[in-house]
């Protein structure tokens, strides 16, 4: 009787272990790949925005001012929407981000929260 129980129990235990191992490996493959700012910039599309609000800090040791922006973003074929972004802006380019100005930018089409300056005068604070 003991041999019969072992003959049933051991294959069931082995089957359960194989199932759990296979499931844990397939689950790790399904994890989403980490997406970074470089990936977002590469798939971004052209757009433009009207600056609705801008609050900047003085120029720091890196030679740029941190500017918190509220933008009315426009991209072809989509309705305008409001986005917030923080950019590091060259001192000579602070006039580009004054309230009421329109600026050229790039927008991630898969996640509209990510807007990037179109030019070397500013970069996204990462």
Structure description:
The protein has about 130 residues and is an alpha+beta fold. The protein folds into two domains: about 1-30; about 45-125, OB fold (Dihydrolipoamide Acetyltransferase, E2P), CATH 2.40.50. The chain contains two helices and six strands. Strands 5-4-1-2-3-6 form a six-stranded antiparallel beta sheet. A hairpin with an 8-residue loop joins β1 (about 45-55) and β2 (about 65-75). The radius of gyration is 26 Å and the shape is elongated. The model has no long low-confidence stretch (mean pLDDT about 80).
Largest sheet, described in full?
A: 6 strands, antiparallel
In terms of per-residue confidence, which ranges show pLDDT below 50 for 5 or more consecutive residues?
none
The rough form would be described as elongated
Assigned CATH class of the largest domain: Mainly Beta
Helix content: 25-40%
What is the total domain count? 2
Q: How much strand? A: 25-35%
The spatial strand order of the largest sheet comes to 5-4-1-2-3-6
Number of strands: 6
Query: What's the rounded overall pLDDT mean?
Result: 81
Q: Output the radius of gyration.
A: 26 Å
Kindly, what is the distance between the CA atoms of the first and last residues, rounded to a whole number of angstroms? Answer: 67 Å
Series of secondary-structure elements, N-terminal to C-terminal:
HHEEEEEE
User: Could you say which structural class the secondary elements and strand pairing correspond to?
Assistant: alpha+beta
CATH topology of the largest domain: OB fold (Dihydrolipoamide Acetyltransferase, E2P)
Number of helices: 2
């Amino acid at each position: 009787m003991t041999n019969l129980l072992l003959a049933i129990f051991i294959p069931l235990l082995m089957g359960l272990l194989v199932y759990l191992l296979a499931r844990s490996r397939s689950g790790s493959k399904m994890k989403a790949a980490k997406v970074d700012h470089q990936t977002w910039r590469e798939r971004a599309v052209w757009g433009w925005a009207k600056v609705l609000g801008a609050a900047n800090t003085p120029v720091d040791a890196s030679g740029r001012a941190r500017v918190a922006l509220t933008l009315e973003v426009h991209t072809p074929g989509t309705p305008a929407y409001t986005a917030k972004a923080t950019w590091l802006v060259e001192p000579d380019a602070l006039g580009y981000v004054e309230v009421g100005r329109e600026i050229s930018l790039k927008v991630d089409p898969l996640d509209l929260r990510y807007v990037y300056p179109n030019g070397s005068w500013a970069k996204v604070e990462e």
